[in-house]
C-alpha cells in the first residue's frame, strides 16, 4: 500500500513538473470535454468513533477511474460527469475483530497494554461517481480553475481484516458485518494539476449487527486528499 502511494505521488509530481505550455498552433475544438480520467490519493479518517476507538499509522486510499464529461451549456464550462472507478482503502485502528467457532464476529477495543504491530481492515471497491462540474476552461486553455461536487456510490467487492502481535497473527476475509453498499458526498477543487479532494460518507462502515457492549459501532468515513485529472 505504501509503495502504491509513493508511485502515485511520483506520477503526479512528474506530470506537474514537466507539463508543457500551450502549443502556439492550437487547434480549437469547440466540442471539447475535460477531465475524463482521474487518479488520486487520500488520507482516510474514521468519524463517529465509539469511546476508546482511535486510529494509528497511515490510513490511506488510492482511487482511479473514468468519468464521462457531458457539458450542459454553450461555453462548455458547466457539465455533468458520470463514471466508473476503483479504489483500495486501508484503515489502521485499535478495533479488534474476532471470529468464534460458530462463525459469529465479536468486536472490542484493544487494550493499551497489548503490543500489536498491525490491526487494520482493507477494502477494494467499485465506485460510481456522479458530479456537477464547473471550470474556467476554454477550448484553448489547458490550465484552469475547477470545482466539482456530487455523490459517489461504492460497493465493496473484496475486504480483509489483518491482526498481528507478539502472541500471533490472523486474517479474516469477507467480513459479513461490513455495509457492502456505500455512498457519500464528494467535492474537488483546485487549479491545473493539483486539486483538493473530499469525501464524506453518509452511511456507516458496519451494519447495526456489529456492536461493542451492545451498542452499534456506527463509524463513518471522511477522506481528504489530492485528485489528479487527465483528459
From TrEMBL:
Name the UniProt key words of this record, in alphabetical order.
Answer: Signal
Q: Where would I find the Outer membrane protein beta-barrel domain in this sequence?
A: 18-206
Pfam families the record matches? OMP_b-brl_2
Q: Which domain of life is it from?
A: Bacteria
Q: Where is the signal peptide?
A: 1-19
Q: What is this protein called?
A: Outer membrane protein beta-barrel domain-containing protein
Query: What taxonomic ancestry is recorded?
Result: Bacteria, Pseudomonadati, Bacteroidota, Flavobacteriia, Flavobacteriales
Amino acid at each position: 500500500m505504501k509503495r502504491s502511494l509513493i508511485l502515485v505521488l511520483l506520477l503526479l509530481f512528474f506530470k506537474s513538473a514537466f507539463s508543457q505550455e500551450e502549443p502556439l498552433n492550437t487547434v480549437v475544438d469547440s466540442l471539447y470535454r475535460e477531465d475524463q480520467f482521474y487518479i488520486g490519493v487520500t488520507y482516510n479518517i474514521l468519524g463517529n468513533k465509539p469511546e476508546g476507538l482511535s486510529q494509528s499509522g497511515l490510513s490511506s486510499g488510492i482511487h482511479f477511474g473514468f468519468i464521462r464529461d457531458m457539458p450542459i451549456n454553450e461555453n462548455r464550462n458547466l457539465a455533468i460527469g458520470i463514471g466508473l472507478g476503483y479504489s483500495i482503502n486501508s484503515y489502521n485502528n485499535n478495533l479488534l475483530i474476532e471470529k468464534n467457532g460458530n462463525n459469529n464476529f465479536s468486536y472490542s477495543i484493544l487494550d493499551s497494554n497489548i503490543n500489536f504491530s498491525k490491526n487494520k481492515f482493507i477494502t477494494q471497491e467499485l465506485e460510481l461517481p456522479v458530479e456537477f462540474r464547473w471550470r474556467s476552461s476554454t477550448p484553448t486553455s489547458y490550465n484552469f480553475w475547477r470545482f466539482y461536487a456530487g455523490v459517489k456510490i461504492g460497493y465493496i467487492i473484496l475486504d480483509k481484516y489483518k491482526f498481528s502481535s507478539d502472541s500471533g497473527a490472523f486474517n479474516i476475509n469477507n467480513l459479513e458485518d461490513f455495509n457492502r453498499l456505500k455512498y457519500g458526498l464528494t467535492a474537488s477543487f483546485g487549479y491545473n494539476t493539483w486539486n483538493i479532494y473530499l469525501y464524506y460518507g453518509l452511511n456507516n462502515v458496519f451494519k447495526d449487527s456489529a456492536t461493542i457492549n451492545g451498542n452499534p459501532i456506527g463509524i463513518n468515513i471522511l477522506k481528504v486528499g489530492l485528485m489528479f485529472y487527465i483528459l
